[in-house]
Every structure is written in C-alpha cells, then in structure tokens.
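Homework help board

Subject: predicted structure for assignment chain

Our instructor gave us this sequence and asked us to write out the predicted structure in token form, then describe one feature. I got the tokens but I'm not sure how to describe them. Can anyone check?
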Amino acid sequence: GLDSAALACLARQTGVADGELEHAFALTFRDAGEAYDELAEARLVAERLGLKLHVIRPKPSDLRDRLPKMIWHLDQPVGSVSSLAAFMGSEAAAKRGIRALLVGQGADELFGGHSRYLLMLAEDRLGREPALRHYLPLARYFWNPAMFNDPAERYYTLLNRGPAQDPRCRARIAGYMKPWTNLIDKMGYVDLMLMLPTVLAMDDRATAAYGLENRNPFLDHRVIELAFRLPPELKVRDFMTKVAMRRALQGIVPDEILERPEKMGLAVPVTRWMAHDLKSWADVRAKRFRERLEGNFLNAAWDAAGPRGEFDRRRYMRICLELWMEIMIEGGVKVWEDQGFIDRVE
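My token output:
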C-alpha cells in the first residue's frame, strides 16, 4: 500500500544502508478477490528499491489453527481481523533474523486515508446542499433514519458497524471531535486517540511474541502536528484520499502507487472464510459462546443489530471472546508449538 511504500522509498532516499533495508513482506489474499490483493504493487516497489520480497499467503486454516495462540499472546479478545496478518508477518520476519520492522500505522488517521471518511464526508456534503435541504426528511426515510444527525453519533455508528448503542462511547467521541472545526480532522483525531492505541498495542504484542520491535515513523510528534495543521482539502479532495501525502511523495514513490485509489489496506477476509471454508468451525465456536453467555446482553445486542455484510465482525468477535474465556478463565493455557505455516513464505 501507499503507507508502507512511502516508508520504504523514504528510507532508501535518506541513505539507509542496503544491509539495514533488505527485506520487504507482503500478505496477499488473492482468492478472496482483487480488493484483498496488493501483490503487484508490492513487487513494483521491491524491484525499484532492490528489496527481497517475501510473500505470505494465509489460508483459512491459519486463522482456525493459530487464533488461540494469538489471543494468548494478546492477553485479551480482539475485534481486529488484521491480527492474523500482524502475527504471520512478524514470524516470517523473525525467521529471517530481522529484529525491527518499519510499519505505516498512523498515516490513515493523520492524512485522511480511511475509506469510512469518504462515507462521512459524502453524507455531510449532501446534507449541506441547498437544493436538497427540503428533501432531508425524505432522504432519511429512504436511506437511514439517522442520516445527517450529529457527527459523533454517525461516526460512532460507522466505527461500531451498527447502531450507536452506548451513550458513554458517543460522549467520548464527541469530546474528541469538539476542538476541531472540520469533519476530516474530527474523525482523524477520534481515530488517533481512540482507535489507533488498540491497534498499536496489538501490533506491539504480535511483534514482541517473536522478539521483534515496531517502528512507526508517521507517529513522530512533528508529523502529527504538521498533519493537523493541514487544511481539509489537502487530506481528501474529490474522493481521493491523502492528497498532501501523494503530492509530497511525487518523484519518491512510483507513480503507479501514488495515482491509484487505495484498496482495503491490511484486511483479512475473515467474514468470507467463516461463511465458507471455516463455517463448521465457526458454527461450533459461536454455539459455545451462546451457551456460555446464555441470557447475556451481548448475545441480544449483537443479534438485534441485523446483518452488516462483508464487514460484519460480530461472529469473529464472539469466537475471540469465547476462546479468550476458554484460555484465560478455564485454564486452557498451554505452550503452542510452531505449526510451520511460515514454510510457505515465498
């Protein structure tokens, strides 16, 4: 993706020695569709910089077999599906004697890169169109009753992938949004303060599990301060994300990377796997969760929200929580042996 390509190209330009910048790692889920595959772009950058590219192709069985070990290392149930990618990438790097990784976390939050920002901005723009102002009640009727409501409530709905049910969460999001005047900075600051710390903790534990450390150059305080001084049109313009970042990297990052819309980032097709290859396993685990928490509010809340399509994470979250309770509460902790998936790295 753009973020990792930017780091690699900038590191090479600033004179990092060849021996210190030698390897690149790419995960691909080509079987799940083009949106999950950025291998061509990864190969392009690796060839330009003279890096050895290691390709990891996770399978559905990797999630099933390794999720208990991942939860044990994380010490908590997880809602992020990218944890599998973080663990597999870390182990692949460790097997090759690497001790530190350059990671692109923070760029989406700082420079307007998340796709959900486009949804919020489109709704905001539509709600401010003078010609449509009298049709807003009709739009709510046809599309969503909550449309054009308070930005904090709407963004909470996006983050929650469903109705904004907890007023405490909504209040916290509203508090982070309050200092900022434009919507893109409001959303970016919420993510920086509320969402990103969880992702960083997960990445840190994934790399620490294999004796590695992460380096996150985008989170240098000077980069953060600069990002929040940029006008909103230099973050998102005409549905192109990271406008300023793309301009600044011209002549440094290949044009093929700069000029294409970003895909899904480090996404793992967990929902699709659990509906097909892992259906029987997911059914058993989800059933155990229901039995374990029969009558609990979590079951009722998740069921009441209705289907959410490809990005629905409720079943995955239930399975992670069920595994965590089995491992941490019922004494199921054990020593996991290497299961050898890393042998498939190209």
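Reply (TA_rk): Your tokens look well-formed. For the description, you could write something like this. Strands lie at 23-27, 52-56, 100-102, 213-215, 236-237, 240-241. That's the kind of observation they're looking for.
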